[in-house]
Amino acid sequence: MNQTNGHDAEMPRPSDAAERKMQFLFALRKRGVTNTRVLNAMEKIDRGDFLSGIFADRAYDDTPLPIACGQTISQPSVVGLMTQALDVPARAKVLEIGTGSGYQAAILSQLARRVYTVDRHKRLVRDARRIFEGLDLGNITAISTDGSRGLPDQAPFDRIIVTAAAEDPPGPLLAQLAIGGIMVVPVGQSDHVQSLIKVTRTQTGLEYDELLPVRFVPLLEGLGKD
């Protein structure tokens, strides 16, 4: 005999979760994320794995949410648009500046051969490593270091993504970009007026394309206190 008690009624049904995921992907497409590889990666990587407490229930909302160390996890549509602009080849070696929750790096791990992600906050790197291990994402290397300097020992990189805003595209990072490589970085002199910039290194120099207005925390030099 089938009975439904109060506890069962409150549990989310699998169909509810599937419906939320479908709505999530539809919202991404509506906001301009159309690349099939990027959408597949964002479908596979659950944003809820990178959030805790009350914010985990809002994982499918297209909004930035607080994480530790006074940082945020970016809204999914911005993550999708940045990843799409990066145009990651399957054999690429990618550098991410600003690990944060680890969500962006996890998505990149589905697209690239190797992902290096760095953050000035040791706690964020520790937390992200734990999530990567739990999800068996073995092609990500997370390091606590001054992201404004990049990772010169591992350069050059085919792709570089910066998830914090600089006044100009940082010179040390541009120097670590391979010929034919692409860097996506938010640029602006305040947290109110920023533009997402795509920088392409060619044989003869650098090409800049302005993509969309964004709002990110500032790119800071040095290490965090945690």
List keywords for this structure.
226 residues, alpha/beta, Rossmann fold, two-stranded antiparallel ribbon, 7 helices, globular, disordered N terminus
Question: Can you put this structure into words, describing what you see?
Answer:
The chain has 226 residues and is of the alpha/beta class. The chain has a single domain, classed as Rossmann fold. Helix content is 29%, strand content 24%. The strands form 2 sheets. It has a 7-stranded mixed β-sheet with strand order 5-4-3-6-7-8-9, covered by helices on one side. Strands 1-2 form a two-stranded antiparallel ribbon. The model is unreliable at 1-11 (pLDDT under 50).
Give me a quick take on this structure:
With 226 residues, this protein is an alpha/beta fold. 29% of the residues lie in helices and 24% in strands. It has a single domain (14-214), classed as Vaccinia Virus protein VP39 (Rossmann fold, 3-Layer(aba) Sandwich), CATH 3.40.50.
CATH architecture: 3-Layer(aba) Sandwich
Helix-strand category: alpha/beta
Gyration radius, in Å:
18 Å
Q: Strand order across the biggest sheet?
A: 5-4-3-6-7-8-9
Q: CATH homologous superfamily, by name? A: Vaccinia Virus protein VP39
Number of strands: 9
Name the assembly state: single chain
Proportion of strand residues: 15-25%
Overall residue-averaged pLDDT value: 90
Please report the distance between the alpha carbons of the first and last residues. 55 Å
Q: How many structural domains are formed by the residues?
A: 1
- Helix residue percentage: 25-40%
User: Tell me, what's the shape?
Assistant: globular
Query: What is the count of helical runs?
Result: 7
CATH fold naming: Rossmann fold
Please trace the helix and strand order, writing H or E for each element.
HHHEEHEHEHEEHEEE
CATH class: Alpha Beta
Question: Low-confidence parts lasting 5 or more residues at pLDDT below 50?
Answer: 1-11
Largest sheet: 7 strands, mixed
